[in-house]
Amino acid sequence: MAEREEGLFGLGALDKVDRIRRGMWVHATSPRPDVGLTPHTVIHTHDKLVVRHYAAAPAEGVERHGTPVVIVPSMINRAYIVDLEPGRSLVEGLSQLGHDVYLIDWGVPAAEDADEDVGYVLLTLLHRSIRRVLRHAKAREAHLFGYCMGGTLVAMYAALRQQYLASITTLAAPIKFAEGGRFRDFVAPLDVDRTLGADGLVPVEVMKPAFQMLDPMGNWTKYEGVEKASHDDDTLRRVMVRERWLEENVPMAGAFAREFVREAYQNDRLLDASWQVRGEAVDLGKVRCPTMVVACERDFITPPAAALPLSELVGADTVRTEVLKTGHIGVVVGSMGPRVFYPLLDTWFRELS
Questions:
Q1: 223, 237, 271 from 25: Cα distances, Å
Q2: pLDDT at 7 over 60
Q3: For residue 161, what are the contacts with CB-CB under 8 A and spacing of at least 6?
Q4: What is the CA radius of gyration of the chain?
Q5: Helix (H/G/I), strand (E/B), else coil: 339
Q6: Residue 237 parent element (H or E)
Q7: Which residues contact 200 (CB under 8 A, 6 or more apart)?
Q8: Which end of the chain has the smaller Cβ count within 10 Å, N or C?
Q9: Among candidates 294, 293, 290, 300, which has minimal Cα distance to 352?
Q10: What pTM was computed for the model?
């Protein structure tokens, strides 16, 4: 029998096309699992923002930690990425490790939010949320953790109002935007005003090409992966819950997008303290609280070269850097999360007590 022909135009390619076709059907017809299942209470709302509290529920033998942890996610993705599914949920994991966790859920902006700029986000929405957390937790300081764009905002907030912070931690957070790779190549030339809808928001459809550029063949390999996962219910559920998060992006307030794209992606103003927020310079050198900077080797959204410079810019005496062998999403929701990343955060917070 002749050896089976593989390659782009061989029989193997036909099998591959069939798997992709079936994966597309499974993807289209499979239900999206529920998300955000960790028990919580809402302690604060402001505009579309909601602050969710996940009370410490330490496992047997785990000591409760007194300083609250505030998680700040990106504004262009749903906050439930940190509570995607039981067993691989950052808020659940930290709660079980003895921490009181508070999640800043930015919500979905509408037309009435179009004029909210970076100053409003940092010094009204985030600042008031942190003050509310401290009152609720009966604490003087909080550990502030930011993921992706949320980490950029955390670093900026620390430069302006660090007196409320026990520490900051950034994960996959762009700071040196010139090193932002393919994502920066798409965003930097953007004329935000030309993208705005009638509601004054940047629609999600504008950002989708930027994410697709990161992995041009990603759709094909995704559908092949869905087909493979479809042979096991648990594996398929895990794939589809991630797909739900990837599908549910949110628009951006026009004023915020205009300022952030100009000052960060086009002018890299965090590097020289020339970004002014409500008349105050965002000088990262003024950040004195303990700082941990975490980057991921396989991160195409925020390459390590874009994230790690924060460790050199802050003025803190205690600075720690970590580069994990994973990707931008897998660090939180993959097996790396509960196995490596959640314990890393727990150790860091306790060392600062």
A1: 9, 15, 47
A2: no
A3: 123, 127, 130
A4: 21
A5: helix
A6: helix 233-247
A7: 111, 114, 115, 253, 254, 255
A8: N
A9: 290
A10: 0.90
Q: For the chain, where are the E strands, in sequence order? A: 41-46, 49-54, 69-72, 101-105, 142-147, 165-171, 201-202, 252-253, 276-277, 280-281, 291-298, 319-327
Who wins on pLDDT, 246 or 95? 95
Is the distance from CB of 46 to CB of 129 less than 8 angstroms? yes
Phi-psi region of 148 (alpha: psi -120 to 50; beta: other; left: phi over 0): left
Q: Which of 149, 182, 153, 147 is nearest to 71 (CA)?
A: 147
Name residue 298's beta-bridge partners: 327
Q: Secondary structure of 266-306 in the HEC alphabet?
A: HCCCCCCCCCEECCEECCHHHCCCCEEEEEEEECCCCCHHH
Q: Which of 47, 81, 200 is nearest to 150 (CA)?
A: 81
What confidence tier does 12 reach under pLDDT thresholds 50, 70, 90? low
Q: What are phi and psi of 190, to 5 degrees?
A: -65, 130
